[in-house]
Write a structure and sequence with these properties.
three-stranded antiparallel beta sheet
């Protein structure tokens, strides 16, 4: 299922307790659709043939206004969501943080730096980290749209060939029940071995287990 406004409204209806966070997700989806992010996709410096994610070593140059506006909007929507933890994020706006430094920490999944920054502002570290994880998503999604056809068919590494993140979930497709991993940040997909854990490399079928979504056969 593609996550869009219709599916978000359905989730809000069936799970009203999720509405604060779904509001943040909805804002991210809107930002992903902004064509300005496609204009700042960096030039490729790697190929997916050498087990190196395509984004590795790339020089990312973002217009200050684009990044600052998105940073503030993301914080503002999260802050106004109504939950106790997300409501603590307002100081991140008042402090006039260097959004480029926050973006870099988020892109590199530098949780330690994000937690230290949250502590310095006396805001909830879990809320700040969760929201800032979404900060680079519009750029990462734009990179995937540009580079998806560049992914080598024989890429079978456990990490994303675009941005290097761990997969969020696996998909089983077709009559042959091929297994594909999906990145939760840039949205990239790549085929992998059916009987293999992407996180630890275990291939013992007796030790492997998986969580399957309801109605997954439909």
């Amino acid at each position: 299922m593609t996550l869009n406004d219709s599916s978000l409204q359905s989730l809000k209806h069936h799970h009203p307790e999720w509405e604060p966070w779904l509001g943040v997700v909805q804002e991210v989806l809107r930002e992903i659709a902004d064509s300005n992010w496609a204009a700042v996709v960096p030039a490729l410096t790697a190929t997916s043939l050498d087990k190196t994610p395509l984004l590795a070593g790339a020089s990312i140059v973002l217009p200050k206004n684009l990044l600052r506006t998105w940073f503030e909007q993301l914080i503002r929507v999260a802050h106004r969501s109504g939950t106790d933890k997300l409501s603590t994020l307002k100081p991140a706006l008042d402090a006039e943080l260097d959004s480029s430094s926050v973006f870099k920490a988020s892109l590199q999944q530098d949780d330690e730096s994000l937690n230290k920054l949250a502590a310095s502002l006396d805001i909830d570290p879990e809320a700040f980290q969760a929201v800032m994880t979404l900060l680079p998503v519009p750029l990462l999604q734009a990179c995937n749209r540009r580079w998806a056809q560049t992914i080598a068919a024989r890429w079978v590494e456990p990490y994303c060939p675009i941005c290097g993140a761990w997969p969020a979930f696996a998909e089983t497709r077709g009559i042959e029940r091929g297994r594909y991993l999906r990145c939760g940040r840039c949205g990239a997909e790549w085929q992998t071995h059916v009987l293999s854990c992407p996180y630890c490399g275990n291939t013992d079928h007796q030790e492997l287990a998986s969580l399957v979504a309801e109605n997954s056969a439909k």
